[in-house]
Design goal:
- The chain is α+β, with helices and mostly antiparallel strands.
- The chain folds into three domains: 10-200, Histidine kinase-like ATPase, C-terminal domain (Heat Shock Protein 90); 209-347, Ribosomal Protein S5, domain 2 (2-Layer Sandwich), CATH 3.30.230; 387-596, MutL, C-terminal domain, regulatory subdomain (Ribosomal Protein S8, Chain: A, domain 1, 2-Layer Sandwich), CATH 3.30.1370.100.
- Helices cover 33% and strands 22% of the residues.
- The chain contains 17 helices and 22 strands.
- It has helices spanning 10-21, 25-38, 67-72, 100-106, 156-159, 165-182, 205-213, 262-271, 311-328, 341-347, 384-396, 438-456, 475-484, 514-526, 533-548, 558-570, 589-594, and strands at 43-49, 55-60, 109-115, 122-128, 131-138, 143-149, 187-192, 195-200, 221-228, 231-238, 250-254, 257-259, 284-290, 295-296, 307-308, 417-419, 425-429, 432-436, 462-472, 494-499, 502-509, 584-588.
- The strands form five sheets. An eight-stranded mixed beta sheet has the order 5-4-3-6-2-1-7-8.
- It is elongated.
- The model is unreliable at 333-339, 350-358 and 390-412 (pLDDT under 50).
Length: 596
């Protein structure tokens, strides 16, 4: 039998290896930005065309490379970051594997212009599909200028699996934000198809977060800080009203490196226990600083996963510190007996340290104003949302049995109705009892009514505002507005960008209250990519129906419950909403009898 094992050609091996590092344009953005940071750059520009499919350019003012270094940088396993095996366990830089540039060059056309700060002339190198083409001297600015063109041009099977431009650009923005948030002391710019998306000045962490996500986030941020011998924790969490239902602004960093950790996300979620509505996740920007020897960042090709030596202690640190900060800022009560005992044990545990040989971590002192009198403060304005929340809490805490409601007075109804303390209604119908969620039933009624209105009218009536509203957009929301603004006039909106990123709203659709407008727009901008007009309209009208719908706690009176049941019966009494949520639950009468 003949031999069947053979060595792959270099260009095939390089393309396969590139698959671990280069999955999409955003992968290249991450690697090049991190290289620029490792080169001690103070100003970094990212230029994108066609969402990175045709051009990714990163220009920095770092220390640049010599002729020899520029050539060697594109070889596999070539790196300036580590020298021996022991260096892998104390990595303090971003890139270190020595595979990124070789992998990028294997699946694209790469040009590099670079010059060291003390050099009189730089070098220009060009590689195509992993094959070196030429290297010439060139006059160029200090630092490096990487141009990556026509990604996957030589691997068409991989190029066709790239998503549409909006999705790929969203991934580029994600990587840009992660790097920018971790390095607030550097200037960053992002240009897409010749338009400026971000121009980030250097400043504080708070300034960077606000510059990236917009000014409306600033009043919601609560500072987080804990400094113990072996770990420093700082950053911000958003108040509960800044939580989001789908994906929030959730960022974890360790030693200036972004990482993912469902385990630590759970610690933050537990700190907000009892403060968030079901399905909502808190927004946070948390930075950890540890001895590099205490973590391992070499466990994932994209280096987005980090292994911690004492992750259960960091879990306790995150949960307790956030919980305490929420209490200090009057978001939740903070009492001594609520402290995490595991954290207390950790705080008082002597931990060896290279600098001083060991020590005991001291808890920070909290100063309490014992002369504070809440009754001397000016009364706060109570918003309708707060009243609804209080009503919900009230009903959830009622312990008395629900009172029996009389039969329908309408001659067409002779069934019994009973309201439960949690807002649901019991409806006896023949030999079964239905537990009704009138809020969901009302939502379906509103949705069906809106469908009928849309079929009969081509446009929606609007009402002019006496005073214009201003919505402060971040750059992502601004991009989203540009993509959907052509649909908004026929829906009843009159709005335009007044200056910079401020959206001025002069008219709203009939039925949309001024107090609802900001939240409604925020929901529209939350989805970055609408592939078609129909997809946008479907999401828009779904949000519109939610805005007009009542919750089950809004139905207190029997006559309102009767009307919803009558209208819902006219629809055929459907059991589920289009999204699969149940409108009622049927309990056979014999099930009750069997309980006794």
């Amino acid at each position: 039998m003949s031999d069947i094992i053979q060595l792959l050609p270099d260009h095939v091996a390089n393309q396969i290896a590139a698959g671990e590092v280069v999955q999409r344009p955003a992968s290249i953005v991450k690697e090049l930005l991190e290289n620029a940071i490792d080169a001690d750059a103070t100003k970094i520009e990212l230029i994108i065309r066609d969402s990175g499919k045709n051009l990714i350019q990163v220009v920095d003012d770092g220390k640049g490379m010599s002729d020899t270094d520029a050539r060697l940088a594109f070889e596999r396993h070539a790196t300036s970051k580590i020298r021996g095996t022991e260096d892998i366990f104390k990595i303090a830089t971003k890139g270190f594997r020595g595979e990124a540039l070789a992998s990028i060059a294997a699946v694209s056309q790469v040009e590099l212009r670079t010059k060291q700060r003390e050099a009189s002339i730089g070098t220009n190198i060009y590689i195509e599909g992993g094959v070196f083409q030429f290297q010439d001297p060139v006059q160029t600015a200090e630092g490096s200028n990487f141009l990556v063109k026509n990604l996957f041009y030589n691997v068409p099977a991989r190029r066709k699996f790239l998503k549409n431009n909006n999705i790929e650009f969203r991934h580029v923005i994600d990587e840009f934000q992660r790097v920018a948030l971790a390095h607030e002391g550097l200037e960053f710019s992002l240009f897409h198809d010749d338009e400026a998306v971000f121009r980030l000045r250097k400043g504080s962490q708070m300034q960077r977060i606000v510059d990236v996500f917009g000014r409306k986030l600033q009043p919601l941020l609560i500072p987080i800080k804990e400094d113990i011998i072996w770990c420093k924790l700082h950053g911000f969490v958003a108040k509960p009203e800044g939580a989001k239902k789908a994906r929030g602004e959730q960022f974890l960093f360790v030693n200036g490196r972004y990482f993912r950790s469902p385990y630590f996300n759970k610690a933050v979620q537990e700190a907000f226990e009892g403060l968030l509505q079901p399905g909502y996740v808190p927004s946070f920007f948390l930075y950890l600083e540890l001895d590099p020897e205490k973590i391992d960042v070499n466990i994932h090709p994209q280096k987005t996963e980090v292994k911690f030596e004492d992750e259960h202690l960091i879990f306790a640190l995150l949960r307790s510190t956030i919980k305490r900060s929420l209490g200090i800022y009057n978001v939740s009560p903070s009492l001594d007996f609520d402290r995490d005992p595991e954290l207390d044990e950790m705080m008082n545990k002597p931990i060896p340290s290279k600098g001083n040989g060991g020590g005991v971590i001291k808890m920070p002192e909290i100063i309490v104003d014992r002369d504070y009198n809440p009754f001397l403060e000016e009364k706060n304005v109570v918003h309708p949302e707060e009243i609804q929340n209080l009503t919900e809490m009230y009903h959830q805490n009622i312990t008395a049995e629900p009172s029996k409601i009389n039969l329908f007075e309408d001659e067409d109804f002779d069934e019994d109705l009973m309201r439960l303390p949690n807002g649901y209604w019991l409806f006896n119908k023949g030999d079964v009892t239905l537990m009704l969620d009138l809020g969901r039933m009302h939502r379906l009624l509103v949705s069906e009514n809106n469908k009928s209105t849309r079929k009969s009218n081509t446009s929606t009536n609007s009402h002019a505002l006496l005073f214009s509203l201003e919505y402060h957009m971040n750059e992502i929301e601004k991009s989203k507005y540009e993509s959907i603004k052509k649909y908004l006039p026929e829906l009843g909106f009159d709005m335009k960008i007044a200056h910079e990123s401020v959206l001025r709203i002069d008219s709203l659709p009939e039925g949309l209250k001024e107090t609802q407008a900001m939240k409604f727009l925020e929901n529209l901008f939350e989805i970055l990519d609408y592939k078609t007009e129909d997809e946008f309209m479907h999401y828009y009208h779904n949000q519109w129906s939610k805005m007009q719908s009542k919750s089950r706690f809004d139905f207190i009176y029997k006559k309102d419950a009767e009307q919803v049941i009558k209208d819902f019966t006219a629809l055929g009494f459907p059991e589920f909403l289009p999204d699969g949520k149940r409108c009622f639950y049927e309990v056979p009468f014999n099930d009750f009898k069997n309980k006794f």
